[in-house]
Amino acid sequence: MQLGRFSIGTGDRFAHQAKAQLRACMLAAEAGVSVTPVWNKSNREHLIIGSEPESVRRAADAAVKSLGWTGEYFCDADHITLQTVDRFLPVCDFYTIDVAEAIGKPAAADDVNAFVARHTKLVGEIALMGTQEKFSITEATVRATAEKYLAAVQQAGRVYRHILAAKGAGNFLPEVSMDETDSAQTPVELLLILAAIADEGIPVRTIAPKFSGRFNKGVDYVGDVAGFEREFGLDVAAIAYAVEQFGLPGDLKLSVHSGSDKFSIYAAIHRTTARLDAGVHLKTAGTTWLEELIGLAEAGGDALALAKEMYAEAYAHKEELCAPYATVIDIDERKLPKPGEVAKWSSREYVAALRHVPGAAGYNSSLRQLLHVGFKIAAKMGGRYLELLEANEAIIARNVTENLFDRHIAPVFLGRAR
Ligand SMILES: [Zn+2]
Fold this sequence. Notes:
The protein has 418 residues and is of the alpha/beta class.
């Protein structure tokens, strides 16, 4: 099972866009770059929507068949834990093992001591590929990192072995994710975490650290772009070192979570992967659901009316919709238009406010974030929403494909400036 150098995670909340998403990967192939599609959906999304993991598999298989895709593709049990993984086991072949909750929990003192003793070779200066910078690691750093992360990695080992027992070796790709936590991991911490992952015997294929800066849902990166580029390069170098020294799989690569719409760092990601001959997995999800709304708004008539109703409902329930996502959205309430105002908007005005073109007249990132977390409302509308998706399939599909290809795949994997 090969994920390949480049892969993109795509979320398809209502299981209607798999074909349009796959078409974006076909456009990449036509441009000469292979990008493996991975359909991801977390347990939280399944619960909010009331769907089953099997629906993701069915939609992915159908899209692959209908478009004649001959490359690899995967279904990702996104952000699973020991408590939530079981219902994904029959249909998923990619597992994002989320151990963020165990970060900072103490590991047994003996285990920490054993880790420190096992990795004395890492103490001192470590030369890295592709940079003059070196890691300076003291025994205190090794110990402090083990105290913070060893319990989380041990938990990842338990989840991995649980999946292994059900699926068998070689039948799935494991990712370890640590992004949904308060503070970013440094490249040195990443290196030590990878040492612990190797000790646990997890053949990890992608690792999702938390990077510096804000990765809010569905909107651009907020932070120091130059600092991000340096950190990203050091993370890639840490991975190369870990592959060589700890015997981790040779295709291990970074996974960038909440990776959609981070337009201002895409050039940095592309430059770094090109310079260091590295791969990357870019995970996106809700950006596609917003393209459904954009397509509906663009279509006008009943579809535009429903898009306006969606906004009015989201506005009325903003507190409860935002609560589960509080740490990954930054909505400025004063910038949210009143539903009465949106009710008067034309297709063009609605689309301009929602479509993510930073700097474009009318673009409103607060409105976009609110609608991003508002998919629960579409789920509640049920059949009425799905019928309009189907009636406006062509216009929505065009938006979904364009968004994934032009705004994500092209800058990240093809290096095309936007
Ligand atoms: Zn994540």
